Amino acid sequence: MDELTAWLVLAHAPGLHAGTLAPLLTRFDSASSLVNADPAALHEAAVPPALIRYLRQGAFQLSTDLHWLDHQQHHLVCWGTPAYPMLLAELRDAPIAIYVRGDPELLCMPQLAIVGSRNPTPAGRENARGFASHLGRNGLTITSGLAIGIDAASHEGALPTAGRTIAVCGAGLDISYPKANAALADEIAEHGALISEFPIGTPPLRAHFPRRNRIIAGLSLGTLVVEAALQSGSLITARLAADSGREVFAIPGSIHNPMSHGCHQLIRQGAALVENAADIFAQLRPLAGALARDVARPLSDGEATDATRISAAPLDNEYKILLDALGFEPAGVDLLVERTGFRAGEVASMLSILELENRVASYPGGLYVRSGPEGTK
Amino acid sequence: MDELTAWLVLAHAPGLHAGTLAPLLTRFDSASSLVNADPAALHEAAVPPALIRYLRQGAFQLSTDLHWLDHQQHHLVCWGTPAYPMLLAELRDAPIAIYVRGDPELLCMPQLAIVGSRNPTPAGRENARGFASHLGRNGLTITSGLAIGIDAASHEGALPTAGRTIAVCGAGLDISYPKANAALADEIAEHGALISEFPIGTPPLRAHFPRRNRIIAGLSLGTLVVEAALQSGSLITARLAADSGREVFAIPGSIHNPMSHGCHQLIRQGAALVENAADIFAQLRPLAGALARDVARPLSDGEATDATRISAAPLDNEYKILLDALGFEPAGVDLLVERTGFRAGEVASMLSILELENRVASYPGGLYVRSGPEGTK
Predict the structure, then answer these.
(1) A149, A301, A345, B32: least surrounded by Cβ within 10 Å?
(2) What is the CA radius of gyration of chain B?
(3) Which residue of B has its CA nearest to A267?
(4) Shortest CB distance from A252 goes to which of B127, B264, B272?
């Protein structure tokens, strides 16, 4: 069995996520040697019994996936490869593989998630489009869920911009859902990326959407909620973002607009109140720094975290360490992790910020170089 | 010189406030013995030289005040008397005396300040009127500054309610300012109270309004900002409230409404985001408890304050101590301070809350009794 087929086998394994897979890949070196290993070796390696049973039954339905992947625009981005986005890899339950229709390199770009109600007010829709357009022009990739309402408006705002847009789907990428956004999905595939962790042919089950939401939050430096009712799925995305240590942003609105109440709840719980794009950029940089600081200087009881986020100045140290570690030859995240002692997700997050500031440039293959006056360009 | 005249002399003394006056009153027993004391006694008592000079020059212009006070509806509420509001007395620079046109007993009622822009949106005006009306029907007295815009709408909303309304003026009470609110001022005098620290005849100078604002904030358990631009005077009132340990409330709004930006700034700085009146009542009770807790169990570095405010349950102790101390005979704040060891302002604040909950009733002369099923009624 070749490596691609082995990855598809693993991507189809029920309930398997990167947290379980990572130590097994280290042990077996590749997906194919894991999938092809004999049962005794699997037992010896303490592979979970459910996964052993799955691998032994052998009747994998991969032809639909393989056929779909046989198209120039279709890709599978596998865990542990340079193309796999480092911020997403931080999640304990990161997906094994990501199906991509469009440009897979977009996954490693610095992203902001914009999410919200399926039934927004006209003003909410305009805010989503406006923020996505402005942030996109400033180089942020806008990630959302392709739902009607705020999601669609966010994708539309970001599509024509430099940052472009990623739509994370709750079904297989051969399935057009929701139908109302079929034309938008085609445009996103053309100029951005449609992605999913669900194998080709998977229907858009209700249970898929919370899982889809964790990917939206996990890919992004932060999540902006534009309009959301209480009990909205967007609040779950925001909670997942906060749980992963990412920033949560919320736009306030009239107290008489039920679609503002979810945003107000988030603000009460500590989300950054956002009036304009500058508010978002102001928070993103300290966020990346605060992540790095966890490692560089462990906090007691986390009591300095807020202070860290308020003042950007003391963060420069970690960025300087990273830029020094980067030097003037292209280097990947793994090498930078080795050189700095920062965690991979932190390095990726800081690189994203430095890229936004044009202080580093990214090359194909997950490599980064310093740019600007002091750089090699 | 009689006591009333002596108080007027002190009320006219430039820059004199209760923080300076309090130890002198303790030393001299009454305002008249202070004002009538000979220079040697004043020097011996370490009376500030400026005050000695003022008292010695002797040409006090009090006839306008005395003439104004010769009216059934006009009153002077002097520092250190039972009629002087305890929450206001907490301010280091509390006024020596308060001129009142209307009902002076209103000053000791539990109050919420509602303030905001002179140029609100129609929705802001409706919110002010709606909150004032609802809170007033639930027994809170609404205090504001008689300005056009949010102030006027707040007074109007509260006027017909049980809680009624207090207007704090930046000029002498014989001067109608602003003219546009002259009819409203008359109505407030009839059903509530117009008050000022400025002697009769004082014009509405620009410098008076920050001083007026500290009284609005100082009288109130909390301050609600409805709509305010950045740089608005309402933000000063809110800061004064926060500095006195009172709660600050702000109503969010559209990010495209400049009159919401001041409220958003307050929320970012820690003001409670308010969607409805219940949000305000939810915060007021823990506030009063947290004040008491400062005394009952000193906090280290204030780190438990937030936790205290989130959960109301552990606060019941202080309220129980106070209710036990109150017993079933009428008692004043001083006696309760003696019995509980709480500070006067804390006792006053907690009594206000208990009064809102109908667990105590206030009697003339600053006395309180327990009421309700367990009480004497």
Answers:
(1) A301
(2) 21
(3) B273
(4) B264
Judge: A273–B267 Cβ closer than 8 Å, yes or no.
yes
Interface A-B: count of C-beta contacts within 8 A: 49
Closest residue in B to A123 (Cα) is B254
Q: Is A224 an interface residue toward B (CB < 8 Å)?
A: no
CB contact, 8 Å: A258 with chain B?
A: no
Write down the residue that tokens 């307050």 correspond to. Answer: B266
Q: Please judge whether B273 and A268 are an interchain contact, meaning their C-beta atoms are less than 8 angstroms apart.
A: yes
Predicted complex ipTM: 0.76
Q: How far is residue B314's CA from residue B171's CA, in Å, rounded to a whole number?
A: 44
Q: Which of A 152-211 lie inside 8 A of B, CB atoms?
A: none
The residue type found at B257 is: N
Of A254, A268, A274, the CB nearest to B254: A254
Q: Measure the CA–CA gap between B244 and B143, rounded to whole angstroms.
A: 16
pLDDT in tens, chain A (377 residues): 899 999 999 999 999 999 999 999 999 999 999 999 999 999 999 999 999 999 998 789 999 999 999 999 999 999 999 999 999 999 999 999 999 999 999 999 999 999 999 999 999 999 999 999 999 998 899 999 999 999 999 999 999 999 999 999 999 999 999 999 999 999 999 999 999 999 999 999 999 999 999 999 999 999 999 999 999 999 999 999 999 889 999 999 999 999 999 999 999 999 999 999 989 988 886 655 444 333 332 223 332 333 222 222 334 678 888 888 887 677 888 888 888 888 877 788 788 878 777 788 777 677 887 775 443 33
Q: Which residues of A touch B275 (CB under 8 A)?
A: 255, 261, 264
Amino acid at B47: V
Cβ–Cβ below 8 Å for B273 and A256: no
Residue type, B122: P
Whether A243 and A270 have beta carbons less than 8 Å apart is answered as no
pTM passes above 0.80 = no
**In one letter, which amino acid is A365?**
G
Query: Per residue in A52-82, is it b (16+ CB within 10 Å) or e — as a string?
Result: eebbeeeebebeebeebbeeeebbbbbbeee
When scoring A134, A247, A275, A280 by the number of chain B Cβ atoms within 10 A, the one with the most, hence best to mutate, is A275
Cβ–Cβ of A255/B251 closer than 8 Å?
yes
Structure tokens belonging to residue B237: 């009132």
Interchain CB contact of A71 with B (< 8 Å): no
